[in-house]
Amino acid sequence: MGVRAALITENKRLKACGGKLGLSVFQSNELINERSSLVDSPVNLVAMELLKLLGIQGERVLDTSQFDLVFVHVGAHEEGQVSKYTEYINSLVGEIILKAKHESEIGYRLQFSVVLSYGGTSKDDESVFSMSNKNRNTDSNFASLFPSQSYTMKGSNPRSNVRDYCPMMITQWQDAVTRKDTVETFSFQDFLENGGNLTIPSDRFVHEVAFKLWKAPKYGA
Fold first, then answer.
1. Could you tell me the superkingdom of the organism this chain comes from (predicted)?
2. Under 8 Å CB-to-CB from 24, ≥6 apart: which residues?
């Protein structure tokens, strides 16, 4: 889609995958010029270097940038390290949001997404993890009027092979976007009750981000 994209990760399998997809792949020590991982570096330094890849320095947005899109992978691979990584992600998100404060030059130019994996799901988990519209209390007289997400349709016909649950959660932030939901916490229950988009395949998510960057046409209504 013409997007200049970078991937920052220390995961070998993800490095290989990113390279095959045409992404520019970096290790964290290449980003911060130190022999340390992202989570071992000051979070304000990491946030500053990430924004610099997008052409943002200090409180200014430069006319040119090295990349249009940057993926940062932070993985809790080691047993017992989940809380450490969660705390770090929370701090990094807070630091970036602070720099892109409302109505600032950065805020107008930044589209920010956080994707969290909470493990795989099995057949027995469908009743717990389902995010389907079908599970919502809807008056049967109006069931046919309930809108469908575009990815569930092929032409005018519903697709039969679409999962109604997935093992990842995502939240997006972009200044001046009018359509938003009422989610206040990054939790499954809050997403289920107050989330806006329900589920979306990962390939459509990347296309949606490209659309927000004016790099791709809208994929559906």
1. Eukaryota
2. 4, 5, 6, 7, 67
DSSP state of 153: E
Q: How many CB atoms lie within 10 A of CB 159?
A: 11
Average pLDDT in the chain: 78
CA distance 220 to 113: 20
The pLDDT, as a whole number, for residue 50 is 92
Burial of 86 (0-12, 13-18, 19+ CB in 10 A): middle
- Among residues 71, 65, 135, the alpha carbon closest in space to that of 106 is found at 65
The DSSP code for 45 is H
CB contact at 8 A, 8 and 71: yes
Integer Cα distance of 106 and 92 in angstroms: 16
The reply to whether the predicted model has a pTM over 0.90 is no
State the DSSP code for 8. Answer: E
Q: Which residues of the chain fall short of a pLDDT of 50?
A: 133-135, 221
The CA distance from 146 to 181, in Å, is 17
Q: What is the pLDDT of residue 66?
A: 92
Tokens of 20: 């095959």
* Cα–Cα dist 178/61, whole Å: 23
Question: DSSP states of 12-35 as a string?
Answer: HHHHHHHHHTTPEEE-HHHHHTSS
At 180, phi and psi to the nearest 5? -150, 165
Q: Give the number of other Cβ atoms within 10 Å of residue 83's Cβ.
A: 9
